[in-house]
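Sample pair:
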Amino acid sequence: MNLIERYKSPTPKFFRTLRNIGIALATAGGAIIAAPVALPGIVISIATYVSLAGTVATAVSQAVVADETI
């Protein structure tokens, strides 16, 4: 199974939920980073890590496929 087939295959329910949480984290982190107000450096740093974690969780969760032998 190549990468394109893997991403097009159905994803189990748990990983769909995890993917949606990852999307929310990445969006929230990106919104804080792009905020038009001046925020302390620690807040920007935390938002960067949250955004990165959300992006990784989303990508990994999307790559999981349901096992068809069960």
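The radius of gyration is 15 Å.
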